[in-house]
Amino acid sequence: MRLDLPAEKRLVHTMTIPIRWGDMDAMGHVNNTVYFRYMEIARLQWMSEWGMPANPQGQGPVIVNAFCNFLRQLAYPGEVIVRSYVGALGQRSLDMFHETLRSDDSSTVFANGGTTVVWVDFPAQRSLPLPEALRQRLALGI
To answer: From CA 129, how far away is CA 10, in angstroms rounded?
Structure first.
């Protein structure tokens, strides 16, 4: 079952990540688990750039759902471009979506996927409302 990205989403971050030799599996293409790693790297980089890095002694994002549609094979050598989007905002969660392309073929989506992110207080192990700073920046389109 293929899940498509929603029409109502906003691009918030783009980054380039090298494809490493070790990302490939015995079949000669990037292993399916690595696509989730690419999305994670992009998501955490975006949050860090916005001043909201994961802090195990404080607050941060936890993934409660993740999916990926594998559309084309990736292989070493090369670089991927991960475009990150924010979709629906809830009181304590947000939906993020990602497109993975190659830097030498930026018109072809090789994979797309997404996550539902819940903001949590790690020491208390409970969810919290999304940070107001995050909501304000998203509202302003920064």
So the answer is: 21
